Amino acid sequence: MDVYILLAIVLGFSALSSLLFMKMGFSHVAGYLISGVFLSLIFRERIVEYKDFLKFFSDVAIALLVFEIGREIGIKGIEKFRLLPIAILVFEIFTAFLIAVAVGNLLDLTAIEVLVLATIGSFSSTAVIFKLLNELNFDEDIRKIVLSVMILEDLCAIMILAILPQFALEVHLLEVVRLLGFSLGITAILVFLGLTMLNRIFEKVIKPDELGVSIAMSSALLFATISKSFGLSPALGAFSAGLALSTHPKNAEIGNYLKPVREIFLILFFVSLGLEAGLPSEFSPFLLFVPILIIFCRFYAFTASNWIFSKRSLEECVRIGFLATSVGEFGMIIAHEALNLGLVGREFLSLSATAVILGALSSSKLSSKTNYAEKIASLVPLEVKTLVSSISVSVSRVMESKSGEFVRSLINRIARNVIAVVVVSTLGSASLYVLNMFGSELKYVNLALVLAIVFAVILTVSAKTKSHVEELCCLLVEKRGLNPRIERVLSGLTFAFIMLTSLNVILLVSGRFFVEILKEVSMLPLAPSLATLVFLVTFSLSAYFIYRRIREIPI
């Protein structure tokens, strides 16, 4: 097949498919992906010879997309982030990792596969949500909060893309830590160069015309090449160049010139993802059940976090949750990069494509139906609504404080202790594999000793953090009129959060070790299911503890 015919078929068919989906009220991205899947059934053997050609378009599309995100966000936009979007992001990522760890233990996935699965479930589609926000007339405050969360998600995805190549290196744990530190150092240098040197060049040379667009694109690709030469993702360099261009006085006009070029590459990129994902050779419940679970968890996390932190009604939060069911394209991009690096199998690309398609379809339809939100909200008992509303008012009063002195102090102390817990949990869990190499006769003694030390440290740090929260709550009671009963709730929730984080990390790092132990002890083929059951029981007990704390709030 001639390359011109290939491009004509791909662009023409994807345009028709996209138009059809948009007429039905769905996202055009789903149309592009389905076009790729359909074309893979017809031209699978002929397209193989153009694999490098399609990969070139994919690489350029990723670089231009990330460059555009950096240009639109800008360094000033990063500096203006409020606490509420950050809280929502942390809640949804935390939920995604909990579910990914549970599924990973059930299906006996590796730690890297669990991480990729969690990233697929952590990000929404910025393009789809932006379109729906404009069409469905959400108020300005909701728009700002949701778009701020989307920007934060894009930043997290870019950082994951930046360090992903390091996971492909077969090195020891300490070497991985060193490489991650090196990655962060190069990241800081690229951003610094972009904001101090490249932006001055842009202001003097680039104008909103064809020549200016050519220079901007070449700079993005140059920085992407520099980033790749250091073993990092090209997306990082392109993002740094985008930040530099964001300071240009005519940034918006330049963006209008860049958009058509970017869109052409993105069309080919999404179609090529669909081509590569294709249809699986045999049906697997994994490819259907997990995407549906991801969509549901995104709906739950976004709805619950907005309900707790934003003082909005449950009906409004459910509508916002419907928006978040559009699983992000960045999940596919990360799965695609992980596949190219040999970190995951092709089924993860198919899984992410299925999640994006189903998410785009569900988000487009559910968000436009206000009666769906009302029906779901009516299922929640009035007592629960009153409890959550009371929590939301108190939490919002703290989070919306203008001085933010107590909030910053609380976050710093909790963050410091959570980092300590994560480090201890990671090192302790990883040491199980090392100790197991020195003799199987001490395996169970080593297991008990390491777990005892890890949990002793975790309990100590959790108790210390709990006391920090109580001290800060006392100050808030005195100076800001916080309900005194909230103190017990916040301290209890903080304790439960740290314990759940520790459990998450331990199961992520040493889940396969525990599965092997269960296989030896139980002599049953259901060890992964038993490990998942242990995880779910522990999580349920923690959730019950949180619920008991919430019940203590005076209505």
UniProtKB/TrEMBL annotation:
Q: Which UniProt keywords apply?
A: Membrane, Transmembrane, Transmembrane helix, Transport
| InterPro entries assigned to the protein according to its UniProt record, in alphabetical order | Cation/H_exchanger_TM, Na+/solute_symporter_sf
Start and end residues of each Cation/H+ exchanger transmembrane domain: 15-358
* Localisation: Membrane
Which Pfam families has this protein been placed in?
Answer: Na_H_Exchanger
Topology relative to the membrane: Multi-pass membrane protein
Q: Keyword Protein transport: yes or no? A: no
Transport is among the record's keywords: yes
| Principal localisation | membrane
Query: What are the GO cellular component annotations?
Result: membrane
Indicate the transmembrane segments per the record: 6-22, 29-47, 83-103, 109-133, 145-164, 176-198, 210-226, 286-305, 418-438, 444-463, 489-514, 526-547
Gene3D superfamilies this protein is in? 1.20.1530.20
Molecular function terms from GO:
antiporter activity
Q: Which terms under GO biological process does the entry name? A: proton transmembrane transport
User: What protein family does this chain belong to?
Assistant: Belongs to the monovalent cation:proton antiporter 2 (CPA2) transporter (TC 2.A.37) family.
Name this protein carries in UniProt: Cation:proton antiporter
Query: Lineage, please?
Result: Archaea, Methanobacteriati, Methanobacteriota, Archaeoglobi, Archaeoglobales
